[in-house]
């Protein structure tokens, strides 16, 4: 029996035993991920299997509930929406479950409208994601740019770090190779370029891209760790503890003197991403200062 079939079987048992009664909300995909230690896609597939059996159905604004979907004998009036409501719902889903859980069908279900109705407001998923990025970045205004070039660049980097921390999906939604046209991101780029006016134009552009790549790259670690913890139920600290003996054995067997010196005397490293971000930012700015001189 596959993982999704195991979950579906357990929920089916609860429904037939009366533990989950008609109208009761069944565990969300996020709860199933936590309780069964599976990926989000597996939890989603389990609920879809029960929907196909008409044992459960999605209820807008509530979640998935026990019972077959209600019959409709007349056309249901579609509630009035606006683009901001659709975008905000997309952000709420991505914040809770990641971009992988985001679909036009899922948003439509949550808002109680037909999937096709959404296209009047956002045009499609790719367009929606760009609008979500624009809205999420808009929550973090830059303010007045400092006169000192280092402080000006650091301000933009920290604003992006804060945005990535609040919205873990944001880093993977932004492309550096094919950058989307996001209106609220342009002032951030402009602020960095203004701070780099002392550089030759090509170097300034390379420095700007490198800065955003550094912050985004470290933010992707946060998203990956959150997904790994959700899938396995094991925290980063717990994982490191589990691997410690294996790492020690590998170092002892290999020609790795630097590793042995590093771990001598019970050295313990505090893996704090916020501190790592600030350390890397200082190194980056120190390197730019050397280039500028």
Automatic annotation (TrEMBL):
PROSITE patterns recorded: HTH_GNTR (PS50949), HTH_TETR_2 (PS50977)
Alphabetized SMART domains for the sequence: HTH_GNTR (SM00345)
InterPro entries reported for this sequence: Homeodomain-like_sf, HTH-type_TetR-like_transc_reg, HTH_TetR, Repressor_TetR_C, Tet_transcr_reg_TetR-rel_C_sf, Tscrpt_reg_HTH_GntR, WH-like_DNA-bd_sf, WH_DNA-bd_sf
DNA-binding among keywords: yes
GO terms for MF: DNA-binding transcription factor activity; transcription cis-regulatory region binding
Chain ranges of the HTH tetR-type domain: 80-140
Statement: the UniProt record of this protein carries the keyword DNA-binding: yes
Keywords: DNA-binding, Transcription, Transcription regulation
Domain HTH gntR-type: 1-69
Any single biological process term in GO: negative regulation of DNA-templated transcription
Gene3D superfamilies reported for this sequence: Homeodomain-like, Tetracycline Repressor, domain 2, Winged helix-like DNA-binding domain superfamily/Winged helix DNA-binding domain
Residues in the DNA-binding region annotation: 103-122
Classification via PANTHER family: HTH-TYPE TRANSCRIPTIONAL REGULATOR RUTR, TRANSCRIPTIONAL REGULATORY PROTEIN
Name assigned to this protein: GntR family transcriptional regulator
Species assigned in the record: Kribbella jiaozuonensis
